[in-house]
Amino acid sequence: MSIAYAAINPTGDLLERSDSFKPSTVSLDRLRVGTNARVLAVGGEGAVTRRLMEMGVVPGAPVRVIKCAPLGDPLEVRVRNYHLALRRNEAQNITVVISDE
Amino acid sequence: MSSALESPSRVVESVDVTAGREARALVIALAGNPNAGKTSIFNALTGLRQKVANYPGVTVERKEGVWALAPDLPPASLIDLPGLYSLDAASIDEQIARDILTGRMNETPAPDVIVAVVDATNLERNLYLVTQLLEMGRPVVVALTMVDLAERAKIEINDEKLSESLGVRVVPVTARQRRGLDELARAVLDSVGSDAPGAQWRLSLHAEEEVKRLAGDGWQGRAEAMRDLYADELPEDELRREAVGLARERLASANPQWWQEPVTARYRWIEGIAASATPGARDERPGATEKIDNLVTHRLFGPLIFLLVMAVVFQAIFSWATLPMDLIDRGFGSLGEIVRAQMPAGLLTDLIVDGVIAGVGGVLVFLPQILLLFFFIALLEDSGYMSRAAFLMDRLMRGVGLHGKAFMPLLSSFACAIPGIMATRTIENPKDRLATIMIAPFMSCSARLPVYTLMIAAFFTDRKLFGFFSVGALLILSMYLLGITVAVVVAWILKRTILKSPPPPLVLELPPYRVPSLLNIAQTMRSRSWLFVKRAGTVILTISILLWALMTFPRSEQKPVPDAQEGAAVQAARETGVEARGKPAPGTAAQAPEFAGDEGEQMRQSYAGRLGQLIEPVIRPLGFDWKMGIGLVASFAARETLVSTLSIVYNVGKDAEAESPSLIEAVRQAKRPDGTPAWTPLVAVSMMVFFVLACQCMSTVAVVRRETNSWRWPLFMVAYMLAIAYVASFVTYQGGRLLGLG
What we know:
- The complex is a heterodimer.
- Chain A has one domain: Ferrous iron transport protein A (FeoA) (SH3 type barrels), CATH 2.30.30.90.
- The model of chain A is unreliable at about 1-5 (pLDDT under 50).
- In chain A, strands 1-6-2-3-4-5 form a 6-stranded antiparallel β-sheet.
- In chain A, a hairpin with a 6-residue loop joins strand 3 and strand 4.
- Chain A is an alpha+beta fold.
- In chain A, about 15% of the residues lie in helices and about 30% in strands.
- Chain A has helices spanning about 5, 45-55, 90, and strands at about 25, 35-40, 60-70, 75-80, 80-85, 95-100.
- By secondary structure, chain B is of the alpha/beta class.
- Among the domains of chain B are: about 15-190, Rossmann fold (3-Layer(aba) Sandwich), CATH 3.40.50; about 205-275, no CATH class; about 540-740, no CATH class.
- In chain B, the strands form 2 sheets. Chain B has a 7-stranded mixed β-sheet with strand order 2-3-4-1-5-6-7, with helices on both faces. In chain B, strands 8-9 form a two-stranded antiparallel sheet.
- In chain B, a hairpin with a 6-residue loop joins strand 2 and strand 3.
- The radius of gyration of chain B is 32 Å and the shape is elongated.
- The interface of A and B includes residues 47, 48, 52, 56 and 90 of A.
- Strand 5 (about 80-85) of chain A pairs antiparallel with strand 10 of chain B.
């Protein structure tokens, strides 16, 4: 069972969950390279947040960090079926849940 | 949620398009994500029958073509919308797209059918735009691309299931092999006049209630209510504004992320569709791309590969283009001579040869560089490398306040700012693009080299620093660095003042690598060069003729009377001319000074000459006299003309080059009325500094005009660059005097 997805209701709120499972959440910029995760919530309110969501970064979407650029920024992230480059400070606003896939 | 839908009802049979009063040509809009293969489809459908222009008042390009849908029907007009991820955002591109789709763009009726290009390897994200297109009130047909790539990645798309879920026809298309194009045409014709599909996704119960409260009748009411509720601004109408404001508050109190609902709701619907249309899809991307990226975006190899690529591009525009450019130059020169030989000597001939022919040649000479640069740009974009380059450079450029994609245009500007400025097209944010355009001319272009060469040859040849650094080379390097430094500072200032905009965000797709399409590349090269010739060319030609007039009128009647300073220069020219060339060419050494004298006198009497004398008081603090003033006036058209203008003014003959000994000598020997040398090493440096920073290129002005679609920016550019050049030159000269250097 994929805890992360089941725990999110249609409006993005995290529902109750059993204490024995504690899904680890982290912001996208801190997600370790190669770890599979799903988007839990998207913070921020600007045009960039809107753009990221329109491109598929919405609660429930599968994500994985591929690498970061030579100077540390931006990050290359796999979202759904494609690769996206975004800055660390923008990735900070995205909370993800590490999945077991 | 969505249930299986019947195929859209037909209001009008497709044949009826031609029946009735008159056969109207259909208007079809082509929409889709960037990198989805939209351009390939556009090129395949329209072939050579496409044109690029601008939408009135904005810099968004208007790309239209002719699509022969069926042999017995008038060809349809196919509008290529800018590549979009969504119709909602506030930028100009999305605005224009919405206007076109709703028929609010004048001269363009609302499209009869929308063709939505969907990339099969990227279904979910591509479908987002489709969900918006379905609500536009026009029939939609989906063109499914990259099906072969999807197959390779073991993704199977059931296009019938997809069609059923979306409620529109889905046609797989492979543009490069021209497969599916006929089916697409048929699907489009079938869809004309049918009902618009409408939205089939739903928000949360709470939000749907609010929408219903705000909505009028029918699906259009729902669309408007959604727009009002979720748009960035509130509606203008008072009552509406209040109602919407209250609705928003109610939603916000229940859920702080209420404004995200439309996006998440759409994606929920999309996920359902994608799941049913691609059973058992794997999340794997074609292995090739990842493997290539292991090198290309590698910590170490990435930047190295990038430098290599940039070096190749730079080398190409800098040196490979020189051969064809020389050929064009010479070609027009010969043409001019032939015409001059055939026609009676006189004003008209001069106008045609020195004004028109030289002017046209002056425009066409840029073509090799433009063609080469756009070849590379199209190649890098089509293959997918460009986004990797932006990915690598982003951190660096951001530190300077520029967009990551500004690297390529700025680099090309070291060869010539014209193609560089045209290349800024790849920068989406208009303010970032403008900032890049404004500083591109500071990159010392190849046209400045003759000026540097002349100054250094005249005053700095044998000097060395610390015994082995050639002062001349150091000077040139300093000029380049000066340009770059000023550019960075100006960009910083511009971004904080008039071009103030939030630091460019980076949300960049890194598409899978693809074999670039030669057809696409050729189309890009063709349309860019045509645009240049047509728009920029006319301005350049006009100014060429104006300049010729300034230098030719009024006609000088007198025979040249060599005065003291002229005599010295002429004498020196004769002597060095004979020595340097060994055997003087028949007639040149003896006659040249006389002809030169005629031309020199002519130049001094002309309006250009008078202008030079007029501005002398202004330029004297920079160390210049009125003869240099003439040079400055003339070189505002094109920097290289400084050399030829100076050689005319100093009576050395029109064809002198920067290295010609006679010109160098003339420059060294030139004297002011009071006998002191007109040129000193300090004056030479001051002149170089001026040339680094001033905008002396009407071709640049013409291109900026074309790319920004107004005269405001090019004129601003000339003005502020002139101001900076003046101040810098002033500081150089006066500062040098104070330090006792000259």
